[in-house]
Amino acid sequence: MDTHQPDHAAPVLNNAVPVRHPGRWVSAIIILGALALLLQSLVTNPNFRWDVVGTYILDTKVVQGVGWTLILTVSSMVLAIVLAILLAFMRQSENPVFRWSSWTWVWFFRGTPVYTQLIFWGLISVLYPKITAGVPFGPDFFSVDTSVVITATAAAILGLGLNESAYLAEIFRAGLKSVDRGQMEAAEALGMGKTKIMWRIILPQAMRVIVPPTGNETIGMLKTTSLVLAVPFTLDLTFATNTLANRTYLPVPLLIVAAIWYLVITSLLMVGQHFIEAYYGKGVDNLAPAAINPAAAKAAAAVAPSAAAEPALKMDFPEEEAK
User: Fold this and answer.
1) What is the mean pLDDT of each run of 10 residues along the chain (323 residues)?
2) How far apart, in whole angstroms, are the C-alpha atoms of residue 90 and residue 111?
3) Is 191 left (phi over 0), alpha (psi -120 to 50) or beta?
4) What is the pLDDT of residue 264?
5) Count of CB atoms situated within 10 Å of the CB of 75
6) Which pLDDT value is given to residue 303?
7) What is the pTM of this model?
């Protein structure tokens, strides 16, 4: 609207009144008050023994426990992801043997507690003293002691990884089924092979669905490593802090030490998950701007009307100019 023309009356501005949100202020005051009480309790209560926390937060045994916890988490998740991808493809196969084998695997490992499975892997050398390769009901080619192959570390990784693979297989299957079948049919119409379709068309779209729950499962795996005492594996973070607590008769400060380290590792994993989600959500989740093709941007700028042509367009519609 042109306000400089003498024929037009002066515009009347609306006196907008801001919307009141008393509920927000009340809830914020309640939360801040509760947070202040919690901080006061943490600072003034001498039973937390923050001096002991500061003494043991960087203890050698604790730092080694953090390292072993990370090794168990990463190794178990790598094993679980590889198996889960295989199981997800088998579940969608047209071969009924593959489908039922995948279903049975998921049924068994999801249907039994992970602690029970870890105890089983810890006793595997009792059930099978030797691992033998040969012909069924025939000669053996070689054999080796089970305790030499499946150590406590290997048993912990196997127990955690096999259990997790059952859960991840269902997550991967859901991600693959989230991609419309028309995507594959269109790619096949263009002459692309099945492997190329899977890696270039299906998986990049399925990853948007797969990554968030897989990040949750990784964080869950980090905390599940505290159960490897069932193997028994005695080098992880929980066992290290429990040992120090039994030695000093101060369980609370050492529990706080373990909690701080778990929070630090979990925070780092969440940061990594954020960037992976942003990478696979480009142009869809608006977490990161989509990459702009320079050639396409240049072509769009050439097609767009220039500033010199804009007055001419306005002259074609005088009623729009008046409004």
Assistant:
1) 55 78 93 95 91 94 95 95 93 91 94 93 89 79 86 93 95 90 86 86 88 92 91 90 92 94 94 89 62 65 53 46 45
2) 20
3) left
4) 95
5) 17
6) 59
7) 0.77
- Please tell me the total number of residues recorded for the chain in this structure: 323
Phi, psi for 49 (deg, rounded to 5): 50, 60
Is the bond into 96 cis (omega within 30 degrees of 0)? no
pLDDT of residue 199: 85
Tell me what pLDDT residue 2 has: 47
Phi-psi region at 14: left, alpha or beta (left = phi > 0; alpha = psi -120 to 50): beta
Determine the straight-line distance between the first and last CA of the chain, rounded to whole angstroms.
7
Task: Match 């998986």 to its residue by tokens.
Answer: 203
- Give the whole-angstrom CA distance, residue 119 versus residue 156: 9
Non-local (6+) Cβ contacts of 254 within 8 A are: 52, 56, 241, 242, 244, 245, 248
Q: How far apart, in Å, are the Cα atoms of 272 and each of 65, 81, 188, 208? A: 22, 17, 34, 15
What 3 state SS string does the chain have?
CCCCCCCCCCCCCCCCCCCCCHHHHHHHHHHHHHHHHHHHHHHHCHHHCHHHHHHHCCCHHHHHHHHHHHHHHHHHHHHHHHHHHHHHHHHCCCCHHHHHHHHHHHHHHHHCCHHHHHHHHHCHHHHCCEEEEECCCCCEEEEEEHHHHCCHHHHHHHHHHHHHHHHHHHHHHHHHHCCCHHHHHHHHHCCCCHHHHHHHHHHHHHHHHHHHHHHHHHHHHHHHHHHHHHCCCCCCHHHHHHHHHHHHCCHHHHHHHHHHHHHHHHHHHHHHHHHHHHHHCCCCCCCCCCCCCHHHHHHHHHHCCCCCCHHHHHHCCHHHHHC
